Amino acid sequence: MQVRLHARNTFAFIVGAGFLYLAYLIFFKSGDGFPEIDVDLNSVVSYAVLAVEMGGYAVRKIHEENKLNIAQKGLTDEGKAELLTKADLISNYLILDVLQRFPRLKIVTEEKDSSISEKEATPYRADSYSVWLSIRDILSQIPSYRLTLSDVQIYVDPLDATQEYTVFGVKGWGVMTSSGKKLYPHPLAETARKIVVSRSHAGAVEKLARKSFGEGYDVEPAGGSGYKTLRLVNGTAGKVII
């Protein structure tokens, strides 16, 4: 018996086998259907900043329309109401929409509700190109650094300090005190002996802080992780427990 190979059939077989192997690498060996991607961290951070700007635009617009749709999504460990607003959900949707440009980027978000549709989000979607133009000078200063995208993980809290948002709303400044007043910087040399703790998730933190650091520190409850961090930066608090 004699077997004869035709060049055309042989070529078709090799091409077919090559595609099958490529499909195996993409859909099975890589785990989630996408090969590893090497990116510049500058690009990821730029999109993250754009996402924050898009989300912030929605938060402000929803408050201006007075359509917060405040709901309670549960209770904190201390039994206090944990609030959820339309701004949380719309902002979360828009932020994730921008970040999903990177298929292997790991994203952990506080809001798990995915019931928002594109139709609901569209009225609060800023023009991304206009937003990018307004921040491109800042983005150009981000240093370049190559890394594997799957090694990057982003945590999203679409509206930090929801409780303060429902009480004080949107002010003409980015950061406020827990009483809704504008925050002014203080000299770092005059750092206060003060410990700032979470207002809504305080638990036994105040007691623990006094036990650990002594009575020489005052303990102050405050809302918003960003605000508490800035208290360290501007010297109006010496320690923060989140």
Structural overview:
- This protein has 242 residues and is α/β, with parallel strands linked by helices.
- It has two domains: 126 residues, Fructose-1,6-Bisphosphatase, Chain A, domain 1 (2-Layer Sandwich), CATH 3.30.540.10; 82 residues, no CATH class.
- Helices cover 42% and strands 15% of the residues.
- It has eight helices and nine strands.
- The chain is elongated, with a radius of gyration of 25 Å.
- The N and C termini lie far apart (80 Å).
- The model has no long low-confidence stretch (mean pLDDT 75).
- Keywords: Hydrolase, Magnesium, Membrane, Metal-binding, Transmembrane, Transmembrane helix.
- Its cofactor is Mg(2+).
- Pathway: Polyol metabolism; myo-inositol biosynthesis; myo-inositol from D-glucose 6-phosphate: step 2/2.
User: Going across the major beta sheet, what is the strand order?
Assistant: 8-7-9
Domain count, please report it.
2
Q: How much of the polypeptide forms β-strand, as a percent range? A: 5-15%
Q: In the CATH classification, which architecture of the largest domain applies? A: 2-Layer Sandwich
Under CATH, the homologous superfamily of the largest domain reads Fructose-1,6-Bisphosphatase, subunit A, domain 1
Span of the ends, CA to CA: 80 Å
Classification by helices and strands: alpha/beta
Q: What ranges have pLDDT less than 50 throughout 5 or more consecutive residues?
A: none
Apparent shape: elongated
* Structure summary, number of beta strands: 9
How confident is the prediction overall: mean pLDDT? 75
Total helix count? 8
Radius of gyration (CA) equals 25 Å
Encode the helix/strand succession as letters.
HEHEEHEHHEEHEHEHE
Oligomer: single chain
